[in-house]
Write a structure and sequence with these properties.
The protein is an alpha/beta fold. The protein folds into two domains: 5-150, Trna Endonuclease, Chain: A, domain 1 (3-Layer(aba) Sandwich); 161-194. 36% of the residues lie in helices and 30% in strands. It is built from five helices and eight strands; from the N terminus they run H-H-E-E-E-E-H-E-E-H-E-E-H. The chain has helices at 5-14, 16-21, 78-97, 124-129, 163-189, and strands spanning 32-39, 45-55, 62-71, 75-76, 105-115, 117-118, 134-142, 145-150. The chain has a six-stranded mixed β-sheet. A hairpin with a 6-residue loop joins strand 2 (45-55) and strand 3 (62-71). The longest helix has 27 residues, at 163-189.
Length: 194
């Protein structure tokens, strides 16, 4: 029997607490709802969605934490990421169109991608580097069951901008900065304040 995407989804849905113990540490997941195969209309069908609430007695604001969990049998790639972001967009539209009084809630939408491996050669690593609302997990399914490991988005960068490169770029940045302000000053002097 081959391991299918549906099998991964089944394991997480039926054993969510056990999966958390085995490495699926989803940010801000308190006690709440775990929903499966959520139809988001034209945006598609999300594998799993968690919804939890946290009330702040000081300012009366309730935080709503919504996690979209996208399961992939194989490699997590840019297509999987964009699919998950499409679901997030659908949820935002749903929340906007709902009768929820958003002034009294702080809504946190997060994406979790789960797959057997991560495509380190794709541009996805650059997207994830600046996206703090997405977590990536790899799974292993073996004799002792399933285990999860969070992918550290900063491990992919072997070389960062060093001091020498910054010193080389500094004069160019200063020139651009000066040119921008001079062009802005020209535009402002041509305008009338009434």
């Amino acid at each position: 029997m081959s391991f299918l995407e549906k099998n991964l989804e089944d394991i997480i849905f039926k054993n969510f607490d056990k999966c958390k113990e085995r490495g699926l540490k989803i940010d801000h997941m308190k006690q709440g709802l775990l929903l499966r195969q959520v139809d988001l209309g034209d945006y598609g069908i999300a594998d799993l969605i968690t919804v939890s609430f946290e009330c702040n007695l000081i300012n009366g604001c309730t935080e709503i934490f919504i996690n979209v969990i996208e399961c992939k049998k194989g490699i997590i790639d840019t297509t999987a990421y964009l699919q998950g972001k499409r679901y997030i967009t659908g949820l935002k539209e749903l929340l906007f169109l709902s009768e929820l009084d958003v002034d009294h809630y702080r809504i946190n939408l997060k994406l979790q991608l789960i797959g057997s491996s991560f495509d380190e050669r794709s541009d996805l690593k650059y997207l994830l580097h600046s996206d703090r609302d997405t977590q990536v997990f790899t799974y292993e399914y073996g004799f002792d069951g399933i285990s999860f490991k969070e992918v550290d988005r900063f491990l992919f960068f072997k070389r960062t901008i060093g001091e020498r490169e910054i010193k080389k770029m500094a004069p160019k940045i200063k020139q651009l900065h000066r040119a921008f302000y001079l062009s802005l000053a020209d535009k402002i002097s041509d305008r009338k304040i009434i």
